[in-house]
Design goal:
The complex is a heterodimer. Chain A is α/β, with parallel strands linked by helices. Chain A folds into two domains: about 5-325, TIM Barrel (Alpha-Beta Barrel); about 330-435, Alpha-Beta Plaits, CATH 3.30.70. Chain A has 13 helices and 22 strands. In chain A, α3 (about 115-125) crosses α5, α5 (about 155-170) runs parallel beside α6 and α8 packs across α10 (about 295-310). Chain B is of the alpha/beta class. Chain B has three domains: about 35-130, Alpha-helical ferredoxin (Fumarate Reductase Iron-sulfur Protein, Chain B, domain 2, Orthogonal Bundle), CATH 1.10.1060; about 145-240 and about 385-440, FAD/NAD(P)-binding domain; about 240-380, FAD/NAD(P)-binding domain (3-Layer(bba) Sandwich), CATH 3.50.50. Chain B is built from 17 helices and 17 strands. In chain B, α6 runs antiparallel to α9 and α10 (about 150-165) packs parallel to α17. Chain B is globular, with a radius of gyration of 22 Å. Classes of the chains: A alpha/beta, B alpha/beta. Chains A and B meet through α10 of A and α2, α4 and α5 of B.
Chain lengths: ~425, ~450
């Protein structure tokens, strides 16, 4: 079994699976249970300034999106930062860290956007012995209206400013948690590193309304007839998070900087995907909230098996390995030609590929007598839609045409050389350059 | 072909070879990966899962199914084997309908449990196909343990002991290891020599020596083992079969169902295995069903199971009863044998109707005769060859805790030991737990 020990910002944890700052890490009881279940680290649910704690609604805090068989795919929440006294949290953090020195314990923070507030809380956090802090610049609901959370994360200058304060008043690693509710994730990431952040973590939740109660005519979750937008998370947001992580990982200004990935990580495979995309570790919340802390056991065994199968002996062997293969559309090889191929033995004759192709794509699948579905290479543009809608895994595959073979659709012989849009004759910019 | 289903007497070759081969194929075909994925997706990953509680070996079922769902059936297999090293066989023979699958919350919700047994088989088959053993031995403890009997309990005990660093010698009375897995269950539940392959795979852990053809009381004695080894585990099974106590029981054609099943399991060519035209099986357990169904599959024309109590009392599960009925076996209830008639060989069996009053079974005096050129006795097995000086309780070796017998340094498990159901999976649990107790004792 591969060794999953992971070092992130010099903080060692027995595996790269941390629990994200969220309800599962709100208090000592939960965090101890998490560590007993095998989690490598936790980011303690966000602490606010000293004084009367925030209050939460007393009605439903969560809304859900389901897939088939009522599988929870997306979760939306309107919960705020911790609603327990600061001192209580600090005492618990101190105790837990003392009892679990081998696990990572990061404290999430969100205080008003002024230097005094940060200067006040940081020494208190330092005293707990926690391994680092994470700045919650992400929560999109409630706190944002008070000038915190995503209200800070959406203004790069504020990010830099607060990060600088934190580096000034706190000696251990500072992670900046980014909001995805922004046009270009690279700007806040650059801003964080400009303020000397040690790492960024992303994504926080996405602004969302999960559903509307059609009798009450109100968004869900509904509080006394009204609803508000909340933060969306869970498996549904993974592709969005993966792209944002990749954007930061391949941005020349932030390339190679530490990233802690968050966003719908549910299985070992999700974790591996984020890590090869540049994340040094991962943070999980919804999977734990859906299945309980025990779910980490599958992540541990799965990642370990994959590493053994691939011959990786350390997580550092594969972190960032896929980053060089993320590129812009214009650099994709236009001479790479594939055609869909349907495995007739595997085909169960449902006809979904036909409906998809005939109605919504390129009329490249024939439906022959006896419900035999075959690809017409002369029409197939290799869009992959048939593969995506086919219920049978590996029934339809995309087969690459070798150089020298004829592409029946274009009537052209496939060329061996790589050629992309930047030099394509149809590209006005390319033509201009050639002239 | 000379013989057919209607040939009288006990003869071989009632069905052509291709029919026999088809009849004795896999009862539940193995899942394809897609089927496994669909089946695994149905698991809710319950907290403190009822299925896990219902499993005598406490396999972490939600975890292994999640590992299948996430594309790591090998990791799933390891989860299974950590608790139950014979998880491959148990996936095939466990009465899941009365264990894990009965407890499944989807059984409660929809009457359709997650198919845990088949998923377990998918996982274990995947890992075993790699022919890699998932465990390694701990450093040698220098201790030696004797295991008597290479059935499920003995194998599970030996494997766990070997894993913990002890050296183990298994003494097996038969010429081949496996116990009831090899000799005692229906062929269609574990075709393609699975029991044999499983033993070979299990032995890959190392540190286990198999001494076949060594019977307790004949070739070895408990006193001798106690002198030569640091601990002894008895897993000798049940060697005897209860008598019918019916007149004419000694006629030709009357035999023990377990012997018939053992012959069948060891037969290289089932077209050469004789079976009656009119077969009557006396009993109500899994052995009765296994003997009856296999008689039918060999080509017997009429096969009847006669059970002395009502259907609700049958120890064979409802699933097993349905399997028998689907194969054309007639199930008759509240009938007990009083006589086997025939001139030297059995020709008919006379059964008396019974009623149960106040829990006591009595005959009504009314009888019925069935044609029977072959009668199988499947009315329970008894402990034989128990070593002298060991306490017996209810006809089995008395054990307390994790298989401790009345004799210090001697443990027992499986069918020969008191307590627990006589199931493969229970035997495995008992063997494993005894091994842990032996380990704790030897390393204390």
């Amino acid at each position: 079994m591969a060794d999953l020990t992971t070092e992130f910002l010099g903080i060692k944890s027995p595996n790269p699976f941390w629990l994200a700052s969220a309800p599962p890490t709100d208090k000592e009881y939960n965090v101890r249970r998490a560590f007993e279940a095998g989690w490598g680290g936790v980011v303690w649910k966000t602490l606010g300034s000293e004084g009367p704690p925030v209050v939460n609604v007393n009605g439903p805090r969560y809304g859900a999106i389901y897939g088939a068989d009522r599988r929870l795919l997306g979760l939306n929440n309107i919960e705020l930062i911790t609603d327990r006294p600061l001192q209580t949290n600090l005492e618990e953090i101190t105790r837990v860290k003392k009892d679990y020195p081998d696990r990572a314990l990061i404290v999430s923070l969100m205080v008003p956007c002024d230097e005094e507030s940060w200067k006040a809380i940081l020494p208190l956090v330092e005293e707990t012995g926690a391994d680092g802090i994470e700045l919650n610049f992400g929560c999109p609901h409630g706190m944002a209206e008070r000038g915190m959370g995503s209200a800070v994360g959406q203004v790069p200058e504020y990010i830099t400013m607060v990060t600088e304060w934190c580096k000034k008043y706190y000696s251990k690693p500072v992670i900046v948690k980014l909001t995805p509710n922004i046009t270009d994730i690279r700007n806040p990431a650059r801003a964080a590193f400009q303020g000397n952040a040690d790492a960024v973590s992303l994504i926080n939740t996405i602004n969302s309304i999960t559903s509307v109660d059609l009798d009450l005519m109100a968004p869900q979750p509904t509080i006394d007839g009204k609803g508000t937008h909340g933060g969306y998370c869970g498996p549904a947001v993974k592709p969005i998070a993966l792209n944002m992580v990749a954007e930061i990982a391949r941005d020349p200004q932030t390339h190679g900087k530490p990233i802690s990935a968050i966003g719908g990580i549910t299985t070992w495979r999700d974790a591996a995907e984020f890590m090869v995309m540049g994340a040094g570790n991962v943070q999980v919340c919804t999977a734990a909230m859906t299945y309980g802390f025990k779910v980490v056991q599958e992540m541990i065994s799965g990642l370990s098996q994959w590493m053994d199968d691939k011959g990786y002996t350390s997580t550092s062997d594969f972190i960032g390995q896929a980053v060089p293969n993320v590129t812009d559309w214009q650099y994709l090889n236009l001479n790479y030609v594939t055609k869909a191929k349907i495995d007739q033995d595997a085909c169960i004759k449902c006809g979904r590929c036909y409906a998809a192709c005939e109605d919504t794509s390129h009329q490249a699948i024939w439906m022959k007598p006896g419900r035999v579905f075959e690809v017409n290479d002369a029409e197939c543009v290799a869009c992959n839609l048939c593969v995506d809608v086919c219920p049978v895994e590996s029934c339809i595959s995309m087969v690459e045409l070798q150089a020298g073979e004829m592409d029946e659709r274009t009537g052209k012989v496939v060329e061996a050389e790589y050629a992309n849009w930047t030099t394509h004759p149809n590209n006005p910019a390319a033509l201009k350059a050639a002239e | 072909m000379a013989n057919s289903q209607t040939t009288s007497g006990i003869v071989a070759g009632r069905l052509p070879a291709d029919r026999i081969a088809k009849n004795f194929g896999d009862l539940h075909p193995a899942y394809q990966p897609h089927e496994a994925a669909v089946a695994a997706d149905r698991c809710y990953f319950c907290h403190d899962a009822p299925c896990m509680t219902a499993c005598p070996t406490s396999i972490d079922i939600p975890l292994f199914i999640r590992q299948i769902a996430t594309g790591t059936p090998e990791a799933a297999a390891k989860t299974i084997f950590e608790q139950n090293i014979l998880g491959g066989m148990c996936a095939r023979v466990c009465p899941t309908e009365t264990l894990c699958e009965e407890a499944c919350v989807r059984e409660t919700a929809e009457g359709k449990p997650v198919e845990i047994g088949r998923l377990q088989r998918y996982a274990t088959d995947t890992l075993m196909a790699r022919n890699a053993h998932p465990f390694t031995r701990a450093a040698s403890t220098g201790k030696k343990v004797a295991v008597v009997g290479a059935g499920p309990s003995g194998l599970a005990c030996a494997h766990r002991l070997a894993m913990l660093g002890h050296d183990v010698v298994i003494f097996e009375a038969r010429p081949k290891a496996g116990g009831l897995n090899e000799f005692g269950i229906a062929a269609y539940k574990a075709p393609n020599h699975f029991a044999e392959r499983e033993v070979a795979w299990l032995m890959q852990i190392g540190g286990i020596t198999m001494e076949e053809g060594k019977a307790l009381g004949r070739d070895i004695t408990l006193a001798g083992l106690k002198a030569d080894y640091d601990a002894v585990f008895l897993s000798i099974g049940l060697g005897g079969v209860n008598a019918l106590r019916a007149e004419g029981e000694d006629k030709d054609g009357v035999r023990d169902a377990v012997d018939f099943i053992a012959d069948l399991r060891q037969s290289g060519d089932l077209t050469g295995l004789p079976v009656g035209r009119d077969v009557v099986v006396i009993g109500g357990g899994m052995t009765a069903v296994d003997a009856a169904v296999q008689s039918k599959l060999l080509g017997a024309e009429n096969v009847t199971i006669a059970y002395r109590r009502g259907q609700e009392s049958m120890s064979a599960s409802r699933y097993e009863q349905d399997l028998a009925a689907q194969n054309g076996v007639r199930l008759m209830f509240n009938l007990r044998p009083v006589a086997v008639h025939g001139n030297g060989s059995a020709a008919e069996i006379e059964l008396e109707y019974t009623t149960t009053e106040g829990g006591k079974l009595t005959g009504t005096g009314e009888t019925i005769r069935l044609k029977a050129d072959q009668v199988f006795k499947a009315i329970g097995q008894t402990l034989t060859d128990a070593p002298e000086g060991i306490a017996i309780e209810g006809g089995k070796i008395a054990v307390t805790g994790a298989g401790r017998t009345s004799v210090a340094g001697v443990w027992a498990g499986g069918d020969c030991a008191s307590g627990g159901e006589d199931l493969t999976v229970t035997a495995v649990a008992e063997g494993r737990d005894a091994a842990l107790d032996i380990h704790a004792t030897l390393t204390a």
